[in-house]
Amino acid sequence: MTGLRFILKALIACIALALVVPGKQTISVSASTPPAAAKRIAFTFDDVPRGSGAFLTQDERTTKLIAMLRSRGVSQVALFVNPGRIDNGAAGKAAMKRIADYVAAGNVLANHTWLHPHLSKVTTEEFLSQVDLAQAWLDKQPNSRRWLRFPFLDEGGPDKAKVAAIRAGLAARHIQNGYVTAEASDWNIEGLTIAAKKDGKPIDMAGLRDLYVESHVQAADFADELAIKTIGRSPAHVMLLHETDIAALFIGDLIDALRRDGWEIITPDAAYADPIRTAMPEVPWTNGTLTEQMAWEKKIPPPRYYDRNDLKIANPLFNERVLHEKAQ
To answer: CB neighbours of 302 closer than 8 A, spacing ≥ 6?
Structure first.
């Protein structure tokens, strides 16, 4: 029996090695390249401190978000801050308390400019001034990093001279691009939810959770497949989220779903150590995720962006699955 079991195991192993999935590219794996199955992703949250959402107070949101991350064993996320939104009054003191709570939980702070300007709509000097103001504030805070997340993911659009000047300005300041590789426009899901709540529409919370989770898992998988096509490996990914009520409510479900899908949740410190951090794609329009820009540079065949970031696709899905409204 022992010999028979050995033979059967050997046969199964040979069959498994012989199986080829049609249409799939074989990726070589070296010691320095993680296997394709080792999908890794870090969480980052923009627009801190963010205004009120549909369901929670700002204090409740912070408390719940910290608790959910801790409950899933996520030791660090990055919060990209707009310090210019923090006033000197009671609201500002409350915002500082919430930021301090995030830091005390082990998370890090990074630069999202002073007041969230659209780079394509301001001068290079104005933009770098906003970066400097925010960085001066951050340098006084514990757990801060010299990473810049471009508001609206706008790195200068088609203005190549501005793109080059901004890149040079950041290099001179020793500030790294806090790029994104995966996103699912959670800001839009949150905005639609706030509008529905304001209008008194019934919101299917299970439908909202499922749409939020599904969209972000799909976005992560899309980004990984695109990266493998573009650079031949799975990099450490960075997911763009926002400090929203829906994140606080459903981040635990998202983490669970990502892990079931084979993802490891890593720290932003680990993600931003990946070699793609030095990439500066030369593309017609510098906007969007780094994954998309690298694919555009190498002329990878479309699709090069996750389809639910198109609001013409995303909004009807929200109406159907969360509000149960039929398409017009």
So the answer is: none
pLDDT tens digits, 219-251: 999 999 999 999 999 999 999 999 999 999 999
- Tens of pLDDT, residue by residue over 26-85, are 222 223 343 444 899 999 999 999 999 999 999 999 999 999 999 999 999 999 999 999
Residue 108 confidence (pLDDT): 98
d(CA 203, CA 211): 12
Do residues 96 and 124 touch, judged by C-beta distance below 8 A?
Answer: no
SS3 of 263, please? strand
**Cα distance between residue 88 and residue 11, in whole Å:** 72
DSSP string, 240-262: EEES-HHHHHHHHHHHHHHHHTT
Helices (H) and strands (E) in the chain, counts: 11, 10
Instruction: State how far Cα 213 lies from the chain centre.
Output: 13
| N- to C-terminal Cα separation, the chain | 66
CA atoms within 13 A on the CB side of 276: 27
Residue 328: predicted pLDDT: 66
Q: Residues in the chain with pLDDT < 70?
A: 1-37, 328
Beta-bridged to residue 79, according to DSSP, are 45, 109
* Residue type (1 letter), 294: M
Name every residue whose Cβ is closer than 8 Å to that of residue 220 and which is 6 or more positions away in sequence.
Answer: 39, 41, 182, 237, 239, 258, 261, 263
**Dist. CA 215–CA 202, nearest whole Å:** 21
